[in-house]
Amino acid sequence: MTRDFLAMPDDQGYFGEYGGQLIPPELKAIMDGINDAYEEVRQTATFQEELNDLYANYVGRPSPIFFAKRLTARQGGARIFLKREDLNHTGAHKINHCLGEALLAKHMGKTKVLAETGAGQHGVALASVCALVGIDCEIHMGEIDIAKEHPNVTKMKILGCKLVPVSRGTRTLKDAVDSAFEEYMKDPVNFLYAIGSVVGPHPFPKMVRVVQSFIGRVARALFLALEKKLPDVVTACVGGGSNAIGMFTEFLPDEAVKLVGVEPGGKGLDTPDHAATLTLGSKGAIHGFACYTLQDDKGEPLPVYSIASGLDYPGVGPQHCYLKDIGRVQYEAIDDAECLDAFMTLSRTEGIIPALESAHAVAYAMKIAKTMSPEQTILVNLSGRGDKDADFVANCLSL
Questions:
Q1: Active site includes 306?
Q2: Is residue 117 located within the same domain as residue 253?
Q3: Which of 85, 110, 112, 116 is catalytic?
Q4: Model's pTM, two decimal places?
């Protein structure tokens, strides 16, 4: 099953029964053109050399693995390690695929790159690389997220992108996707929609997975060099799912390694205020692809919630849906209170302020570490840093 997954998607963009192109025929031709251009350019030495040079000298990759010694001592049990994606330029894993998408846009002669953003990390990363390659950038962001993530809003404006506030619906990530996609449809020939996760119609889940798999490839090699064995558990937060699929892909053939995706439990799974799509969702479709979704009895997406703006999405990447079904990845939920506790605990034991998104995975590691032995290890993908969340958390906790 795992080997089958590594060969996916099929020609139609499906991972098992998930993914595909559930879009109008005229848009399918555009998506197929993006796929053809991507497959052509990614094989060239020029593209690979430019991308690898920018990863090393612009992003600062490879980022290290850090043994969280004091956090481990506090929790007891298994040793906790962090893959430091938060040390990347712009502060998160998002820069990995944004570079690839911006270089592809340049290769295709696009005049503008469009995107949505929730927590603002994708927006900042894309605005940065568009400034780097000299392409106009437009970011759509829900009004609630704009208020929560003000530092990233400021950065995007400084970087020169056009920021479009979204006031419709829940005024969060799902509505920002809708808004950005509508703008994209005005001129899909000259615009490129740089989707911020492993979601959307084919080829985007494939493209983002390929680039983000750099995370797991480096993490696996670094962990082996450090510990002379693989971790017992690898965990990462899951909203759309790009940082998690980037971390998990390289470990999939290692059956002894337990892989755990951590979803936002929000105010509780017994309330409507969560975004635990894989835990409580059902098979459906959203934004041009088939996946598990949180939906009503008419198949319409439900309003979702997370304290972490980057996780409040009612769908999830098709890869995660397939991996859930075959049982290779386990999906768990962490609520807001556990997330905030992990945010503060990591900050005050290791001097590392995590993104609220990443704090979900840290919270899961803290929870299970004490049930494991000191000889066992947990590797957490620390997908982003919490500069953007500091003021919001301080207000939440009256610091």
A1: no
A2: no
A3: 116
A4: 0.95
